[in-house]
């Protein structure tokens, strides 16, 4: 594409050279002949430090924020490289968002499950859906691993250009909003699930975290829909401060003005009120929190035009999400749960569900991510102490924190067992649990391990399966031994 066309929205025409650009890159290692390199100041690296490497690799134009002199190729300085990247990527790929119905979901907890529920309902109704989220990226029916909850602006625009799907369902993280990854995209639907203490290493205060999330709703299209959970205090606050614009505000809550009300929640069966009717809401997945996720999905699908009975039918057949309250059953009757929960509220949801479902004892295995928001840790411990019978503290991702320092911190908390090897911590909890006990493993969900542990596995799910398979083999060996002894 011609560089002047590519940069028409970010720079004055007379300052742009007339040249053809093959591709855009932010990684000097992938730069090639006739590329445009955009220097981004990242969390760990500053792209401006790699400009000369990009030029040596063949980049013919550079965009950045810093005041640089004497480059061998044209350099265009912009106020914000991330926003420039979003604008340029959209132009390069032909503004692909304009031809899609885009559903953005933000909030601390529930984004992934709500996204999967909406996708399931819409596909049951004959629609095609792409999905960008923390578990997977799904485009044109093909599934790819996700690197971030919300892709960087360049990847996002490329994904949108490739997608032939009618709807795009997007988990929108606070980092994705703050870093301009969704800049320039307009949403047909904006959903707010809830807000809980998280990411304050990045946002510093809950108010800043909230206001960052709220910015997504500035990108709602005219005649779009803001769907907000007013059962959460931050959702109610968002509903009250949204500017008067030409979009529909649809809320979930207990007030007369709320479009949907949850009348009761019981295991496997809840009741909602919608448009003057009381409706049964049946789910095959456990957890009170999933009733709220289902209600958000219900409201979204109903505004799209999916018939109510079809929505109810689809929710009854929704089988869940990998790593989100994923259930396993041990041969002795123990129930094991793998979940992504990493906030106090999410802990409460998981542990309370176990109690409601009749757990006699609850073993809770979790850790803390290094170099992340440490201010939420006491709340997490408090909730776990209140609802779990035994806590097993272990390692999560260290993110550069020395293992000795993390181990010392876990020991100083002086709460329950400390088993730093995550796989052995999970094995310990499972082997100690009895028939009606539950083992709740939180923090990583479906994510792969970044550390090397004792057992030959690479995720919490694989650890559970390995331990159960190993137990099964031991039981079989014992039975064979009994049989041999009888035959003697």
TrEMBL record:
N6-carboxylysine: modified positions: 213
Residues binding ATP, per UniProt: 107-113
An example Gene Ontology CC term for this record: cytoplasm
Ranges where the Mur ligase N-terminal catalytic domain occurs: 21-93
Presence of the UniProt keyword Cell cycle in the record: yes
Compartments (UniProt record): Cytoplasm
Main location: cytoplasm
Annotated transmembrane regions: none
Record function comment: Catalyzes the addition of an amino acid to the nucleotide precursor UDP-N-acetylmuramoyl-L-alanyl-D-glutamate (UMAG) in the biosynthesis of bacterial cell-wall peptidoglycan.
Protein name: UDP-N-acetylmuramyl-tripeptide synthetase
Species: Oceanobacillus oncorhynchi
